[in-house]
Design goal:
Shape: elongated
Number of helices: 0
Strand content: over 45%
Radius of gyration: 14 Å
Distance between the termini: 40 Å
Number of strands: 11
Length: 121
């Protein structure tokens, strides 16, 4: 089975920084698109950033210039560096990955359980 585990969330003051990590483990033939989503209480889940396996990353307009997504394919890990955090960034952040578990298998979408990010003074 495939598992995604997020870490790095916590409480931070406005203007502060956090770095989220998401490590994929289990039966993985190849990782394709990886990304981060977030969901605040009472709101829909929204895309934050994605990074394809062989292309440039994409960002939501609300985080451009403040967040940076990166990946380490050797470690099956994706990161989200969050700078200049604002109270409106408060949410549960979820890791997502499209994963092929074997050579002849269809690519599937996998989700982590989420990590809480709270931006408050």
């Amino acid at each position: 089975q495939v598992q995604l585990v997020e870490s790095g969330g916590g409480l931070v003051q406005p203007g502060g920084s956090l770095r989220l990590s998401c490590a994929a483990s289990g039966s993985i033939f190849r990782l394709y698109l990886m990304g981060w989503y977030r969901q605040a209480p009472g709101k829909q889940r929204e895309l934050v950033a994605t990074i394809p396996s062989g292309s440039s990353p994409n960002y939501a307009d609300s985080v451009k210039g403040r967040f940076t997504i990166s990946r380490d394919n050797a470690k099956n890990t994706v990161y989200l560096q969050m700078n200049s955090l604002k109270p409106e960034d408060t949410a549960v952040y979820y890791c997502n990955a499209n994963i092929q578990v074997a050579l002849a298998y269809v690519v599937g979408a996998y989700w982590g359980q989420g990590t809480q990010v709270t931006v408050s003074s």
